[in-house]
UniProtKB/TrEMBL annotation:
<dbReference type="InterPro" id="IPR029057">
    <property type="entry name" value="PRTase-like"/>
</dbReference>
<dbReference type="InterPro" id="IPR000836">
    <property type="entry name" value="PRTase_dom"/>
</dbReference>
<dbReference type="GO" id="GO:0032263">
    <property type="term" value="P:GMP salvage"/>
</dbReference>
<keyword id="KW-0479">Metal-binding</keyword>
<keyword id="KW-0328">Glycosyltransferase</keyword>
<dbReference type="GO" id="GO:0046100">
    <property type="term" value="P:hypoxanthine metabolic process"/>
</dbReference>
<dbReference type="GO" id="GO:0004422">
    <property type="term" value="F:hypoxanthine phosphoribosyltransferase activity"/>
</dbReference>
<keyword id="KW-0660">Purine salvage</keyword>
<comment type="similarity">
    <text>Belongs to the purine/pyrimidine phosphoribosyltransferase family.</text>
</comment>
<dbReference type="GO" id="GO:0006178">
    <property type="term" value="P:guanine salvage"/>
</dbReference>
<dbReference type="GO" id="GO:0006166">
    <property type="term" value="P:purine ribonucleoside salvage"/>
</dbReference>
<dbReference type="InterPro" id="IPR050408">
    <property type="entry name" value="HGPRT"/>
</dbReference>
<dbReference type="InterPro" id="IPR005904">
    <property type="entry name" value="Hxn_phspho_trans"/>
</dbReference>
<keyword id="KW-0460">Magnesium</keyword>
<dbReference type="Pfam" id="PF00156">
    <property type="entry name" value="Pribosyltran"/>
</dbReference>
<dbReference type="GO" id="GO:0005829">
    <property type="term" value="C:cytosol"/>
</dbReference>
<feature type="domain" description="Phosphoribosyltransferase">
    <location>
        <begin position="41"/>
        <end position="194"/>
    </location>
</feature>
């Protein structure tokens, strides 16, 4: 099942923005680049292989947790379907499905999750579900989502998360597949947002105080 993930240490200071390309409209809003896009791709390729080997011929329903998970989801599924094309002895039929949750405002969890969109979850009955998420932070969102999914009678549920944050107050929840274990910093890019901004940034970056202020929601 789960391979150990890549651990980004607390002391790691990332790459300078000047080493890679970032959109001009975000240049003043980022501290550094924590995970460049290319490294995300390489790691995702390996997660796809691990998932492919674990599933072995069983149809898989890949459930994208929107919006933050959408880039990881499309890249992960692309890589799984590439393995399917190789005509080896294993092949994994894939259904796609989407769910939309909301739990964050500014850089704080609101403590509640709301399912605000997606298909009727009753379609998950009897399915092998792979939940695809961008980040596990406190773990509470995922634990609540898993409880919701369990009510719909799936055959199995596995979770792939690109990132897991090391933070105080974590429930201790660990996904089956993890891309990177990261320090307790607020990250954006590669579809991870801060109040809906930064999804259009390829690399996973650390937001700075300027960015937090500029895009804050004020009552
Ligand atoms: N960035 C974006 N979204 C998040 C984060 C984060 O660090 N933690 C939980 N949701
Ligand atoms: Mg998310």
């Amino acid at each position: 099942m789960s391979e150990s993930s890549i651990r980004i240490p607390d002391k790691y200071s990332g790459y300078a923005l000047s080493h890679f390309c970032v959109p001009k409209h975000y240049e003043d809003d980022l501290e550094d680049i924590m995970i460049p896009w290319g490294l995300i791709q390489d790691r995702t390729e390996r997660l796809a292989r691990d998932i492919f080997q674990d599933v072995r011929d069983e149809p898989l329903t890949a459930l994208c947790v929107l919006k933050g998970g959408y880039r990881f989801y499309t890249d992960l599924l692309d890589k799984i379907t590439t393995l399917n094309r190789s005509h080896g002895s294993v092949s994994v039929p894939i259904n796609v499905d989407f769910i939309r949750l909301k739990s964050y405002e500014n850089d704080e969890s609101t403590g509640q999750i709301r399912v605000v969109g997606g298909d009727n979850l009753s379609g998950l009955r009897g399915q092998n579900v792979l939940v695809v998420e961008d980040i596990i932070d406190t773990g509470r969102t995922m634990e609540k989502l898993l409880a919701i999914l369990a009510n719909h009678g799936p055959k199995s549920v596995r979770v792939a998360s690109l990132l897991v944050k090391r933070r105080q107050g974590s429930t201790g929840y660990r996904p089956d597949y993890t891309g990177f274990e990261i320090p307790d910093k607020f990250v954006v890019g590669y579809a991870l947002d801060y109040n809906e901004y930064f999804r259009d940034l390829n690399h996973i970056c650390v937001i700075n105080e300027n960015g937090k202020k500029k895009y804050a929601i004020t009552e």
